[in-house]
Amino acid sequence: LWDAFVAANRCVKQVPTLLTMMRAMKLLAARSAISVRPRRRPRIGWLSFMFLSIIIYTQAFHRAPCKKIAVKYQFQFSECYAPNINQDLYLNEASFVMAHDAATGYIHSKNKNNYENSINAIANSGGYVESWEDNDDGMNYNNYYDGQDQGSTWNKVSTGLLALYGKTQVGSVYQQLNDGARALDLRPKIYNNGTIGFHHGSLINIPLTSITLGGLLEDAKQWCNDNPKELVILFHHELTHEAGYNALSSEVYTEIDDFYVADDDGVSTNDDEESSNDNGYNDDEQKSSYSYYYSGIAKLKQVYRDHDVPYYPCDMLSGITVGEAMGLADLSKLGGKGYLLAVDRHDMYASFCGKANWASDELVTCHSKNDERDETSQYQMCTDRKNTGMNKLSALQEYVLASANNDATDNAYELGPPADESYYPFNQIQGFWQVDSTSVTIGVTHAASTLLDDNRRSNVNAEMVQLAYDKKFTKINLFAMDNVALNGNAMFSVLRNGCGQSVITEDDEYFVCGKNLVMPHMNVSQRLPLFWNIILIVVYSSLFIMVSVMLIQAFGLRDHGPQDHRVECNGVLI
Question: Are 358 and 430 in contact (CB under 8 A)?
């Protein structure tokens, strides 16, 4: 019994379900009987079984709530369980689902009337809307292209249309993390009043009334508090300032606190500068050191310091393991719970720490114009899944596979993993439809769609999960997705259950990983076209009327008492 118990105890972190535990205990008991007591088969008592089951439920990740069938089936283990991440992995070998432009999830979804009003406004104003701040979706559509030539008619038209394609996520950061994301792509913007909000490139300035950096951090901290075994990484990218370039290019002299951790007494110390610092003070005189930082980075540092979230430069995460990263991200040192950190290059634009694999000449959009020689169709649309959509999907699959499987290169304009992993600690795979003015114009005017609609109708997230499950990628580090609310947990489950990614290994005798696990059942979430919706309404209405008439007639006959039902056939009563 003890041998079986010890063997099972070594595996508790690998068994996320009660059923798997029951099978494992039987195998372990049989193994123990053969190696220790060949003439007796030890029996595992219910007390030990219950004790081990409790340990399992406290060790593995459990997505809560786990009530909806659509959520449960996205996990390869029952009841929304997944094994913990392997902390011995190097950070650039660990696989994370990244929510692309996560802050846009705080923008309220548009309704149909607002969508139509926006299109009409574009048409009526000659292609440009001066101010849409009061729209129901909460977007601020003012001045997307700061510094660009607003005199160009096409720029004005494309600016208004692109606004409809700015929302990439659904729900708050807490919801996105619950939907499988473990990395968040953030685009901070500093306003003249000092508040830090977010933007989506040149498309959208997310209103401060929707979310600020501080509010987003509190949502992320709350999720980490509720899921204290998971590591969450915030990636900055494309820092901007309301006042423009000059406001970012200036430098300020501020305290260095990136390397500070809390000791057992909760006092901040710096192991790297125990004896002295740049100012010539020793530890008895001063615990901190100071240096010059770009003003934007200094403001970001202040917000992270105020909210007790670690914020590091890229080189701090280069060449370290997941366990070491969790040590840097440990919120318990700052009075919190869980593992959360933010990272960028600490340069003027708070640049991304990894290779983005954004090759402008090879980008795959959802909508495009066909070659003029092709007379079969004027446009290619990813939402046309039976015809041109298949070509689009194949092109996107080639793009994402090249991002991971091509020869290593540090050329930012070529697809492939980075060659210099010290400069690029992460490699991003962009598994979503890219956006340009042509794609947006076709999507809005011909497909009556938005970015989230394109994602859902093309079923692109499910296709990316299938690629990952089939092991088509040499290595996955950061897999960026739009709309992680749709099949994000399926991607998380496939990545986490990859052999070597969790505490379950390929050589494990009792537990399985990778393709030995069942493929997640994904939510396609396809809407029927309007025509078929009308047909269904007519059919169901007809059935309802028929049943109602039959019931009325039946009750009428019953009120007339017993009936002598006879049928006459060829003059003969039956």
Answer: yes
Cβ atoms of residues 222 and 181 within 8 Å: no
Q: What is the pLDDT of residue 35?
A: 34
d(CA 367, CA 453): 12
- Percent over 90 (pLDDT), the chain: 52
| Rounded distance between C-alpha atoms, residue 86 and residue 14, angstroms | 10
Is the Cα torsion angle 365, 367, 371, 376 positive or negative in sign?
Answer: positive
Which pTM value belongs to this model? 0.75
Nearest in space to 297 (alpha carbons), one of 258, 244, 248: 248
Q: Which amino acid is at 53?
A: S
The per-residue pLDDT for range 87-130, each reduced to its tens digit, is 999 999 999 999 999 999 998 744 444 445 444 544 444 443 33
The Cα–Cα gap between 569 and 574 comes to 7
- Which distant-in-sequence residues (6+ apart) come within 8 Å of 95 by Cβ? 476, 477, 479, 495, 496, 498, 501
CA distance 447 to 102: 25
Dist CA 173 CA 102 (whole Å) = 7
Strand partners, 196: 190
SS3 290: strand
Cα 343 from Cα 255, distance rounded (Å)? 17
pLDDT value of residue 205:
80
Residue type, 88: D
Which tens digit of pLDDT belongs to each residue from 503-519?
887 666 667 889 999 99
Q: Name the band, by pLDDT with cuts 50, 70 and 90, for residue 293.
A: confident
CA dihedral of 419, 421, 423, 427, whole degrees rounded to 10: 90
The one-letter code for the residue type at 58 is T
pLDDT at 270: 43
Tell me how crowded residue 258 is: count the other CB atoms within 10 A of its CB.
Answer: 18
Distance between the two ends of the chain, CA-based, in angstroms? 78
Structural contact between residues 458 and 385, judged by C-beta atoms closer than 8 angstroms: yes
> Rounded to 10 degrees, what is the CA torsion of 154, 166, 480, 57?
-170
How far, in Å, CA of 336 to CA of 323, rounded? 18
